[in-house]
Amino acid sequence: MTADMSPRQSALTIGVLIILSAAVVFVGLLLGTRPMSAATAIRELLHPDGKIDSIFVWTLRLPRSLTAAASGAGLAVSGYILQTLTRNPLADPGITGVTAGAVAPIVCCLVFAPFISPALYPFVGLVGGLSAAAVTFWVSRGGQARPLQLALGGISVSLFLGAITTYVLLLTGPQSASLLFWLTGGFQGRTWSHLFYMLPWCFVGLAGALILRRVIGMLMLSDHAAAAMGLQLSVWKPLLLVLAVIPVAGVAPIAGPVAFVGLASPHIARLLKPQTVGLQIGLSAALGAFIVTIADVIGRSAALPRELPVGIITALIGGPIFIYLVQKGRLDLAGGQ
Fold it and tell me: Can you spell out the DSSP letters for 259-299?
């Protein structure tokens, strides 16, 4: 058994992950169809001149990488809340049907109701994600059944909504290619406006989780123990469900579904054994940002001049990690309160 990390060690680890994410963002400025030297990138960061290199740095590459980092942090926090809320190590935005619930109505709006403002898509995704999660939790007896039942319920909901999404795509004609790329998860062409559009949703999820860390800590024990300590489950559990879906609703219109981040990041964070719930949340967010930022840089540089969807890269990264955790028997919700 490894010893728990002290709060100082946990904070240091979060800081290191943030620095590493920033380093990956900088590396991302250098890579692409137009390679750039480190000296040129630094010069354009400090003194943009509006020329072609400055456009690549400030318009094309920097906002894209920052959007990827924010998406990863938001999805990781969403997965952490869902795992705690259901006390189920298999819960995440994808497996619980939340992602499919957010994506399907957005695709329907894109195809059948293009007059709807994109600014409303997060709200559409929020309603869809909450509805899908409610159905999944109902199938799995409120999320209190065995992990297999939650997984099967979520997969069933996801497959049903995925079938609807596929059918809608078949009706789109030439537009289907761009929608298919979006449905694999990616940040191609994302700008500052996309980042600012999505950032509040991810911030609300992270800030809300940190503010409610004591409630989350009580729910980690059991519903009976939390109720005995005076927690009103009928109020807090629905509120936490909404809080878990909010980041997904913000990320889905911008990046589409990004796989495995919400599942793997909280488990890796718990594996490091921070002592408090707040530090677990912070570590999950930092890990999610790091993983998605790396995935985005790999996706847009590994197969030049083509681009690989980020969802494929995160699955390739998160899949082996998840298999390792399963094999080691470390899929649990143990952690500090």
Answer: -SHHHHHHHHHHHT-BSSHHHHHHHHHHHHHHHHHHHHHHH
Report d(CA 85, CA 219) in Å as an integer.
7
- The pTM assigned to this predicted structure is 0.91
b/e per residue 186-224 (b: at least 16 CB within 10 A): bbbebeeebbebbbebbbbbbebbeebbebbbbbbeeee
Whether pLDDT at 336 is above 50: no
Gap between the Cα atoms of 147 and 184, Å rounded: 26
Query: Of 205, 221, 218, whose CA–CA distance to 281 is shortest?
Result: 205
- Name 5's bridge partners: 274
Residue with tokens 């490894």: 2
Residue 57: in which H helix or E strand, if any?
none
Residue range 71-101, pLDDT digits in tens: 999 999 999 999 988 887 778 898 888 999 9
Summarised one tens digit per residue, pLDDT across range 133-188 is: 888 888 876 555 566 677 788 888 999 999 999 899 888 876 677 788 788 888 98
The fold of the 7-16+51-327 domain, in CATH, is: ABC transporter involved in vitamin B12 uptake, BtuC (1.10.3470)
Contacts 24+ apart (CB under 8 A), 169-178: 169/107, 169/111, 171/111, 172/111, 175/110, 175/111
Q: How far apart are CA 251 and CA 103, in angstroms?
A: 10
